[in-house]
Amino acid sequence: MALKIVKGSIDRMFDKNLQDLVRGIRNHKEDEAKYISTCIDEIKQELKQDNIAVKANAVCKLTYLQMLGYDVSWAAFNIVEVMSSSKFTYKRIGYLAASQCFHENTDVIMLTTNQIRKDLSSPNQYDTGVALTGLSCFVTPDLARDLANDIMTLMSHTKPYIRKKAVLIMYKVFLKYPESLRPAFPRLKEKLEDPDPGVQSAAVNVICELARRNPKNYLSLAPLFFKLMTSSTNNWVLIKIIKLFGALTPLEPRLGKKLIEPLTNLIHRSFSSRVLIFIRFVFLNLLIKNCSHSDVIVSFCYITVLISLSSGMPNHSASIQVMKYLGLLAMSKILKTHPKSVQSHKDLILQCLDDKDESIRLRALDLLYGMVSKKNLMEIVKKLMIHVDKAEGTTYRDELLTKIIDICSQSNYQYITNFEWYISILVELTRLEGTRHGHLIASQMLDVAIRVKAIRAFAVAQMATLLDNAHLLTGNMQRNGICEVLYAAAWICGEFSEHLENPVQTLEAMLRPKVATLPGHIQAVYVQNAAKLFATILKNQEGNTDSTAAQETSQLMIDRLPLFVQSANLEVQERASCILQLVKYIQKLQQKDVEVAEEVSALFAGELNPVAPKAQKKVPVPEGLDLDAWINEPPSESESEDEQPKAIFTKEEPKHSRPRHTEVDEKELARRREARKQEQANNPFYIKASPSSQKVYQETPGVEHIPVVQIDLSVPLKVPGLPMSDQYVKLEEERRQKERAEKKKKEKKKRKEKRSGRGKKHDSGPESEEDITPAHVVDIVTEEMPENALPSDDDDKDPNDPHKALDIDLDKPLADSEKLPVRSHRAAGAPKSPAEDGEAENATPQEPKKKSSKEKRDKKKDKERDRKVRLRCWKHSPPSGRKSDSRSAQSEGRTKSSKHKKKKQKKEKEEKEKKKKKKHHHHHHHSDGGGEESVQNGTVEEEEPLPVSVCDIQGNLQDGSQVVVSVIFENKSDSFLKSMEFNVLDSLNSKLQRPEGSGPHDGLTVPFQLPPGVSNEARFVFTVQSIVMPQKLKGTLTFIVKDSSTHEKLDFKLHFTCTSYLITTPCYSDAFAKLLESGDLKSSSVRLEGVNMPFHHLLARICFHHHFSVVERIDSCASMYSRSIQGHHVCLLVKTSGQTVSIDAKCDEPTLLGNVLDEIKQTFSQC
Amino acid sequence: MVCTDNIDFTIPLQPAADRRMIKFVLMVNRQGQTRLSRYYHSVELSRRAALEADVVRYCLSRKKDQCSFVEYKDFKVVYRQYAALYIVVGITDSENELSIYELVHNFVEVLDKYFSRVSVYFSLQSELDIMFNLDRVHIILDEMIQNGHIVETNKSRILAPLTAIDKMVES
């Protein structure tokens, strides 16, 4: 029974599918987390099973859990497993999971490259489709580079379903791997004319996105798009095309005229199709500025927008709201080109502020921002203030608040004619409950007070009131956002204290005990500014004969400051204790009737000028200063390498001690001080203590250039209590009327007077902007800039823009070097171009002869032989990083063969090079020297887009089951290469020997760095189990290019041929005969046709390339012998007649023999 | 308007590395539970939950007679309600709101055609349909939107691969 239950539960466990999971979660509402954690445990069990169906089911469930927000990244590898299932239903689940869970940094993505490539080329279109869809979600730069070519091929797939997807994903590839854009672009262009509308629309999508960056490139496509626009019926496509034209029309004005007709047609058509595209048309038409006809359409569209807006007013159904929203959106676009027409609808837009839909209100607010002018600013802000009072919800209210400030402060307060009004608006805003924008108001107050000199007196008065009523602001802790305002208030009162009516009262207000409840940074400002105030008060009172008032003030300070000295905030504490001591000292002096006011106020002399935020950037680099040059010679790399080990082993005192800082004599110090002063005097950023800085301020360009009209002030400077900005609106109206009347009078007198307004002037209407004069003598102090500041327009370029990389000139012809990396390059034996073959062939003939003679000479003394294959591959160095891309890495093999002498167990190597044709990796060999064998061919394929190195690889094997591969690294680039790591993907048979403790996938560090043009050799030991089959090992070399400090990767292959396991072993004819007679050997034979070379050359070739030695030779018949590193005997009987060579061979290992014979055959077939 | 006060506007959203047009598609029920989510730019898992909760709460708090577009931080949200289910799409500023608005409806019509029970007005049953066939809904969505762009809007073309799969499963 119990067994049955267990069995049942096990069954259920494996049966639970997505539906069950969903149901289960719904049934466990109260302990959902617990239920899911058990589910995850089950899934983990299921993933351990071998059954792919169970795994797929588990992954499917994981996808659901991932959606619910559970981390499933631990299953990434299982997802890859499911992805690689051959059954589509499972594969699909795998890809779905991958697209949901993988992101660029998922490490298993590396493993998927080949799987995806396989799926992309699958005959089943849905396999391909699912791979493309998945890829679009997790494509990485690496994947993009490796697969770009495959995807490009898919763009011409027979099935439109695939083409469509491939075209779209190309956009993603372009983003990740911009080098692919140029080679792929022609094909992309073709797709615009694809017979399938789906593919067309995909291509339109991609080009529309691309055109955002560099529309000029796509101008040539305009006729094509024109055709598409008139023919396409897909609204979504039309929107894209029209957007694209929007980008193109500014570049080609003639295009605008041509577009009018089709657009008008479309507009009429689109009325029926739910006004879908219509809105975008409006935008487009506005871009066609050069065309006068378009105005007709503009007004036409525009009126329609208005209709949709106003008709929506009484009826609030959702779709009408939608229209309203879009109408407002359209207006904001119209505003940019036709501000007048929008401004006339101010009332309508203000009405939208009353809408109950927040989205619409926000849109309307946006519009208002662009609509304000000097004329209507006060009115608009007044309306907004009313809304602020009415608004529910802090979010919207905060939005209103920031908008008010934005509207007023835009373009350097361009539209503000009366700053007293603005200050009172700001003060009114402080009464807002629960706003979080206190700091914004504060910074506005500071900005205005600092930059508008004329307003200071008024501002100070207002701020003093604020400080006096601070309890209103701080009373409620919920409103703590607003207390930031006090920061500004305190500072303004302190800094401009000379304008204060009643400084003592303000000082008293600033030192109230309640202040201690404010945030630390505000208290600090309070304390500091109390000191400033104190200085001013002293100065005022010193003139009086009665000194008691001054002493009372000092006493007040001394009484109140200890409160701040105890503050927990360090800043407050520090300032307070400093000032307390100062005041105590002053008090002492006062008691002795010493005049101190001058000295005390000197503490706070000078003025702080605003500095432009970009000032630092704009300081011109002085001539002769090279910021990139080393100040001292950099320590050389080799030096540090040589010296460091010494320091470890010897206990010497470190040589480079540091007693550089010897005492500098007084003179020197004085000189430096002087120099520094000089420097500071010339430094525009140094805020000088001397009053002379005022002069700089006066000279600031911009202030003088603003012509100002003197006007009688009709505004009372002192407003009792909290001011009401409304008064200003009224006053402003009156003032303007008065002015207008005055103007008329003046006109009658026909005496023109120069009038001015700040900022730009727009000529319009009867009461134009320029008629409105500022109410005050207002200087807006421009922000300070360094002298000779460089005008720079690059400020607005965003260095992080991902599209920047796509700013590629597509009109340039495609260079050879710009081909996409093609997979076939990875294969070592890829067919080479005839030219390369030819080259290799040319090199071949002389070389073997030379070699063979040398071999003969060395024969007697040689004990050991090393054979090296040198492979060469090169890359084109692209002219610049931007246009570079990976091109087909071409490779050419050069064989280097060398001999080594062995003396007293020490290997001394003497290398002799031999060139050999690339395609066959066989090696003649005829010497009786023992103990050494090897050959490998490595192909190095380079795919990195940066100019890097060319690597030569040489290999060499040694006795036993171990094989030593020596690799020569040659740096052909111009950069310094470091941190090289050599790694080979182990096969079952061959393994790279790694130091103990490192994992099977770790790379070996190459023990040297490579300066440009230098080569060096490193050796790696491989363990080989079976030698009967040839094999190829894939490997990668990673390194860091020092200058760019980027990681580069170089892929290569090591080719272990069977021949490379043979050792040239001498054998005497009698032993040879015995061996043949023993009967243990299996025989095999090959026949070589058309070998046209002398018999002894043929033998030499076999000896050299395949490590055999000649046992006996009789006329046209020879017997040869070799031995493998594992002791297999290989015997050959070579006979020749005419052009036919027959080789009968015997060996105790038939597979090995077969492979060796194949390799011999290959050697000769390629001669 | 009540709930909007609680929205935490400080949750940092992964900076839109590239400006794709559609940022994400969500299906949520009235209780705010996510029934389907698809992101076209990578957002950390931990942030997804917060983002979803935020956006959804915002959308759910809106009344029926309010418009379907919401501006949320640096992007816009287009949502439509179908009975108990909300479909919420996050888009970049440069995307056409109306086209997405219509796309959502198109998506629902495709679901309707495939599940036949969904009908234009989702019911509880249809919500279950979507949950139980999450992978299929994903296929439909992937057919329509790829890479953050609209690929296909023709209903029968969208459903073609799905019907092929269903046949494959049956056989």
UniProtKB/TrEMBL annotation, chain A:
Q: Compositional bias (Basic residues) spans?
A: 745-761, 851-860, 896-906, 914-926
Provide the AP-3 complex subunit delta domain boundaries. 664-811
Q: Which domain of life is it from?
A: Eukaryota
Q: Which SMART domains match?
A: BLVR (SM01354)
Regions of compositional bias (Basic and acidic residues) in chain numbering: 643-679, 729-744, 799-821
Compartments, record wording: Cytoplasm; Golgi apparatus membrane
> What's one GO BP annotation on this UniProt entry?
anterograde synaptic vesicle transport
One GO cellular component term of this record is: endosome membrane
Keywords, comma-separated and alphabetical: Acetylation, Coiled coil, Cytoplasm, Golgi apparatus, Membrane, Phosphoprotein, Protein transport, Repeat, Transport
Here the segments flagged for biased composition (Acidic residues) are 781-798
Classify the protein's membrane topology as the record does: Peripheral membrane protein
Q: Specify where the region named Disordered lies, as residue ranges.
A: 627-694, 718-942
Principal localisation: cytoplasm
Q: Which family does it belong to?
A: Belongs to the adaptor complexes large subunit family.
Q: What does this protein do?
A: Part of the AP-3 complex, an adaptor-related complex which is not clathrin-associated. The complex is associated with the Golgi region as well as more peripheral structures. It facilitates the budding of vesicles from the Golgi membrane and may be directly involved in trafficking to lysosomes. Involved in process of CD8+ T-cell and NK cell degranulation. In concert with the BLOC-1 complex, AP-3 is required to target cargos into vesicles assembled at cell bodies for delivery into neurites and nerve terminals.
In Swiss-Prot or TrEMBL terms, this protein is called AP-3 complex subunit delta-1
Q: Organism source for this protein? A: Oreochromis niloticus
Q: Which gene encodes it?
A: AP3D1
